[in-house]
Amino acid sequence: MVPIKSLLIGTGSYVPDFVLTNQMLEELVDTNDEWIVKRTGIRERRIAKGMHTWELGVEAGRRAIEDAGVAPEEIDYIILSTCTPDTLSPTMSAIVQDKLGLKNAAAVDINACCTGFCYASDMADSFIKAGKAKTVLVISAETLHHITDYTDRGTCVLFGDGAGAAVYRAVEDGERGIISSFMAADGSGADYLYMEALPLEEDPLHSDRTYSEKNRFLKMNGSAVVRFTAAEVPRAIDEALRRANITPDQVDWVVPHQANLRILDVISKRFSIPKEKIYVNIDRFGNTSSASIPLCLDEMHKNGLLKEGQLIVCTGFGGGLTYGAFVLRV
Ligand code: UT7
Fold it and tell me: For the chain, what is the mean pLDDT?
């Protein structure tokens, strides 16, 4: 039997127009451009004023399908990753299914926080290899402004809104496509990135159900997440490379989740990969959670940086805590 691989045949992205600069944040909290740039690498981020998460997802998805050159009815699965859905029901993926007229597609949302695109791509690959789908649309769409406390300088300087998408298709050519993956979680660090969805209610029948707005904002122990990332992301990359049977010097690009420039140094030193091979756009978009990797991939594709046959390692990490990496030959 010819082995099936999941080939990346299209990418798309969408970011809202409104630009929130470091200077604008100086007006909101006690921070400054120099601190933000030095500690994070971020200069500006986008905010989806008056837009739903699903709208960002629809636009990124539409662009990825166009780029892939497939007909809408060829998409047979949509996997949409988000930790900022507009509604828990309906799912964001079902809305995308309708808006884009993907009439033959099953649709499911997943939430693996900032690792969402890696998990969704791994799931797409599994569906394709199992013969359950031929053409899968993966979308990561986030409006992090919803969960950001703009009075907390420790978090509000980091996050931005955006969406990225990828179309994977079953191919039998044996060389190109997703080659390996390694997904993991360590829930012992659950408190490091915490955001309530539904409040704990001791007596729901008699509660007055007043609910503090503040509870919905993300709380983060930033330095604990940095320590976790520095230890576990290299391990995830190691494992994905080992499963792909390739060595770091064969890698053309590393596309990490854009959370902090410091992870670049860790990856670069640990694998002796020059920094020029680690893609960065955090300066312009900040941390867009699961959308950050497909935003990078789309930008790289549009700028002609992805050449056929190149080996790409994508790696994500974040809330859960979750982390993972996958190797893709484009
Ligand atoms: O996407 C999911 C994964 N997320 C991440 O990977 C994010 C990981 N965390 C980070 O990127 C970093 O922890 C931050 C950039 C959020 C913070 O950097 P840090 O070097 O860990 O700073 P810190 O939290 O240890 O704080 C150092 C100092 C503190 O002041 P004192 O106590 O030393 O006087 C903070 O109050 O920096 C202060 N500080 C700020 N100062 C100016 C914290 N935020 C700011 C700010 N502007 N925005």
Answer: 96
Which pairs count as long-range contacts for 38-43, CB under 8 Å and 24+ apart, including other chains?
A: 39/260, 40/157, 40/158, 40/260, 40/261, 40/282, 40/286, 41/260, 41/261, 41/280, 41/282, 41/283, 42/157, 42/158, 42/282, 42/283, 42/286, 42/287, 43/283, 43/284
Banded pLDDT at 208 (limits 50, 70, 90): confident
Residue whose CA is at the smallest distance from ligand 1 atom 41: 31
For 162-204, the pLDDT digits (tens) are: 999 999 999 997 889 999 999 999 999 999 999 999 888 888 8
CB 86 within 8 A of CB 92: yes
Q: Does ligand 1 lie within 6 Å of residue 150's CB atom?
A: no
Ligand 1 centroid to Cα of residue 210, in Å, is 32
The answer to whether 57 and 102 are in contact (CB under 8 A) is: no
- The finding on whether 264 has its CB within 6 A of some atom of ligand 1 is no
**Do residues 127 and 77 make contact, with C-beta atoms less than 8 angstroms apart?**
yes
Q: How far is the CA of 87 from the centre of ligand 1 (A)?
A: 31
Per-residue confidence (pLDDT) for residue 12, from 0 to 100: 98
Is the beta carbon of 277 within 6 A of some atom in ligand 1?
Answer: no
Q: Does the CB atom of residue 318 touch ligand 1 within 6 A?
A: yes
As given in the structure block, the two tokens for residue 113 are 């926080």
**DSSP symbol at 278:** B
Q: Which two tokens stand for residue 21?
A: 């600069």
CA separation for the pair 92, 96 (Å, rounded): 6
pTM of the full structure: 0.97
10-21 confidence digits (pLDDT tens): 999 999 999 999
